Amino acid sequence: MWKKQVVLLLIVCYNLLLCKSVIDFKIPDSLKNRSGKELTESYDKVFRIDNLKSELYANTILRKGKMTKNSNLIYDGYYKLAHVKGLASENGHPFADSLLQMTKNLNTKEYPAKAHILKGTLLYYDFKYSDALDHFITAQKLAKDKNKDQYFYVKKLIGILKTATGENEEALPLFIEYYQYEKNKIDDNRGDTKNYIGSIFSLSNSYSKNEDYHKSKFYSDLGLRESKKYNDYTYYTYFILSDGISNFYLKKYKEAIKRFLSVEKELLKNKDYENLAISYYFLGKTYDQTQREKEAINYFLKTDSLSFALNKFLPVTRDGYERLIDYYKKEDNQVEQLKYINHLFYADSVMAHNNKYIAKDIYKKYDTPLLLQDKELLINKLANKNNSLQWFLILSSLLVLVLLVIFFRTRKRLRRYQKQAVILLENVEIENSNKVRTVESENRLNNNNQKNKSTLSEENYHDIKTKIIQFESSKGFIQNNLTLVKLAEDLDTNRDYLSKFINEEKGKNFSQYLNELRINYILLELKNDKKLRKYTISAIASEVGFSNSETFSNAFKRTTGTLPSFYIKLLEKDHEN
Question: What pTM was estimated for this model as a whole?
Answer without folding.
Answer: 0.55
